[in-house]
Amino acid sequence: MTTHPSIxxxxxxxxxxxxxxxxxxxxxxxxxxTLALLTGLYxxxxxxxxxxxxxxxxxxNLAVCNLITGVAYVLxxxxxxxxxxxxxxxxAWCAIAIGAWTIISPWVVAGDFxxxxxxVSNVIVGALALLLGLAMTAMDRMGEQGRTRASARSGPGxxxxx
Length: 162
Hints:
The protein is mainly α. Helix content is 77%, strand content 0%.
């Protein structure tokens, strides 16, 4: 009977975790995470901030929708990013979908009852949420490009600069 080492000890997995750790410790990633947290909190509270929570049933439904999507966005983008980047990086794609949903939700959920305040608020915060989600997904690609450039410089024949 043979025993195999745990997948947790696989060198590729260790390298991937190290790469993700490097990506999350940059000021850019931390800034994106902070903005995403604030965006999600605003989205959740926007019906009461903008003032469309006490209107007809369509806008009440939109208020509940914004509350739920705002909390979901915070959990996707801001929930423990520094400790589990490899899991939450995939959730950034979910945050992009939440941003797109936020843009179209006034027409889908509220329909004819949507007010200009609700539409403008949702379109702006939805576009910001979408852009922050795209920025977070790009962080991994930027980390890979930096790693590729560094390995190309340290490749064969690349000695110390004199």
